[in-house]
Amino acid sequence: MGSSMKTTKYLCYLLTAAFLSGCAVPKRGDPEFAPAMPQQANATVQHSDAIYQPQTALLLLEDIKARRIGDMITVVLQEQTDAEKSADTGTTKSTSAEIANPIIFGNSPTHNGDPLFRNSLQSEHEFDGAADSSQSNSLKGSVTVSVVDVLANGNLVVQGEKWININQGEEYIRLRGIVRPRDIRADNTISSTRVANAQIQYSGEGVLNETNSMGWLARFFNGPWMPF
């Protein structure tokens, strides 16, 4: 009785874990992906009688590339991965042995003319195995993120998200990574292939996404913990 209760309790834990894993859906307005506010600059003295004002000055030799906390940069998504793997294995093993009829007291024991102890053994083993796997992924688009930190070597830590409400569901793109300032283009864009330690999420939620997802009970019976 005790063993049966333990098994039932274990299955309940697995079902609960599978159900909770299916409910872990990102939500709009997550504080972790909130845009970073720019740092407050030191107060400058404003001269009311001067044409040049530091607060509104546009420097002729200054570019528009992101370089400070709170600046924005557009990441052009150009992700494409292609993987292919194949394996072919074949083995063959053949073994044979022959036992001659012994000579006892100068004679070979026979029965009706047939040797009694002569024998032979032979075995053959053959194995053929083949495997083939291929996968292709592509993600195109763009997302504008903000600089949340500037590292000691000048590299920029960027992160941000974009939510799009389409019909009966929402699609979102989240991106986080490290950008090298020299890789930023003149129009303040950078390719996603130039983002170090990139974490890119593209998914959605809503009726269409739920319809296209496997139910929690089906995931349980198709999970790796099922022994059958």
Helix and strand element order? HEEEEEEEEHH
Q: Globular, elongated, flat, extended or rod-shaped: what is the shape?
A: elongated
Give the integer mean of the pLDDT values: 77
How much strand content do the residues show?
35-45%
Number of distinct beta strands: 8
Would you kindly provide a written description of the structure presented here, covering whatever features stand out?
14% of the residues lie in helices and 44% in strands. The longest helix is centred in the first third of the chain and has 22 residues, at 2-23. The strands form 2 sheets. Strands 7-1-4-5-6-8 form a 6-stranded mixed beta sheet. Strands 2-3 form a two-stranded antiparallel ribbon. The radius of gyration is 35 Å and the shape is elongated. Among the domains are: 63-79 and 138-228, no CATH class; 95-132, no CATH class. By secondary structure, it is mainly beta.
